[in-house]
Design brief:
Keywords: Methyltransferase, Restriction system, S-adenosyl-L-methionine, Transferase. The chain contains eight helices and eleven strands. Helix 3 links the parallel strand 4 and strand 5. The protein is elongated and about 85 Å long.
Length: 346
């Protein structure tokens, strides 16, 4: 089945769908810092670099599915949470505009759990109604998932909108299957001794990294960062990988940070040398990008941003597999019904 991708970023969602057997024939991403990474890792996908607001629906190829993660900063509970009042939040409407025009069999849209906070309830209900009524209509399924339940070594809660075109006569069911938790030890312990610090001004080491992208941001830690523990043990899952490198979790080689008073913590005295941010490659592993997926950037902050904004590949693959399975089961059922109808006496 052919699909197209909007707000593709580095392509974590796209890669998961490809691993499940879908063909990503066309993708769109407006951030120039990401272009080289996407193109080199998805060489068989036609890549459109315009903003979605400038893309006429006729320029988008016909397809079986549309996937994407409209920008989430405006919905984040940790930020200003302006939601649909923010221009980035309004990009959801352009996603719906394309959906309405192309009418694929299904769509998937991903966003942050901050969409669920009370102040956004009216906007969220409006988006759901627009998705349901796009074109001839879609049966909409909506759920918040934690990536840690789906072979991703990270606590990461995100909401998913999955719609099936009404004429297919079935509603997508989120699978109830989950998987054992993957620990940081399983995910990144083999990388422990090879990480190198970024160059001055957090410029990349480039090809001097023995392992591609295995470099970490240098520089101080803000009072906000030091307000809570940022270390998870080897036998735990990672904190959420965020888009900002300065907010990257601390490597699990370090002991958990010491509480001094409310909202004030310090690195354990005498062990300060153990405290470093996770590297770009370690964050990519935690987001379940494969080792041969290389990120291209000049500033390490751009690497963290690409990875932190991505949908974890394993979670994307899990959902893609379930969509593929349900679409095929529905096709099989329809063929069976048509065969029975053909055999009825005239």
């Amino acid at each position: 089945m052919n699909i197209v991708s909007f707000f593709a970023g580095a392509g974590g969602l796209d890669l998961g769908f490809e691993q499940a057997g879908f063909n990503v024939i066309w993708a769109n991403e407006y951030d120039k810092d990401i272009w080289e990474t996407y193109e080199k890792n998805h060489p068989n996908t036609t890549f459109d670099k315009r903003s979605i607001v400038d893309i006429p629906a006729d320029d988008v190829p016909d397809c079986d599915g549309i996937i994407g993660g409209p920008p989430c900063q405006s919905w984040s509970a940790a930020g200003a949470a302006r939601g649909i009042q923010d221009k980035r939040g309004q990009l959801f409407y352009d996603f719906i505009r394309i959906l309405e025009a192309k009418q694929p069999k299904f769509f998937l849209a991903e966003n942050v759990s901050g969409m669920l906070i009370g102040k956004h309830s009216t906007a969220l209900d409006g988006i759901k109604n627009l998705l349901k009524n796009a074109g001839t209509g879609y049966d909409l399924s909506f759920k918040m998932l934690n990536a840690s339940d789906y072979n991703v070594p990270q606590d990461r809660k995100r909401v998913f909108f999955i719609g099936i075109r009404k004429d297919l006569n079935f509603k997508y069911e989120f699978p109830t299957e989950t998987f054992p938790k993957i620990t940081l030890e399983t995910a990144i312990s083999d990388l422990k001794d090879a990480a190198i610090p970024a160059l001055e001004f957090n410029n990349t080491n480039g090809e001097n990294c023995t392992i591609p992208n295995h470099e970490y941001m240098i520089g101080g830690f803000s009072t906000m960062y030091m307000s809570r523990n940022r270390v998870r043990n080897w036998d735990e899952q990672s904190f959420t990988i965020q888009a900002g490198g300065r907010h990257a979790p601390i490597h699990p080689q370090a002991p958990k940070m010491k509480l001094i008073e409310k909202d004030v913590r310090v690195f354990v005295p005498g062990k300060e040398d153990l405290y470093r941010r996770l590297s770009v490659r370690e964050c990519a592993r935690i987001q379940t990008f494969p080792n041969d997926f290389t990120f291209h950037y000049k500033k390490v902050a751009a690497g963290y941003k690409m990875i932190g904004n991505a949908v974890p590949v394993n979670l994307a693959k899990f959902l893609a597999n379930s969509i593929m399975k349900q679409l095929k089961a529905n096709d099989k059922l329809k063929k069976k019904q048509n065969t029975k109808a053909d055999k009825l006496p005239v």
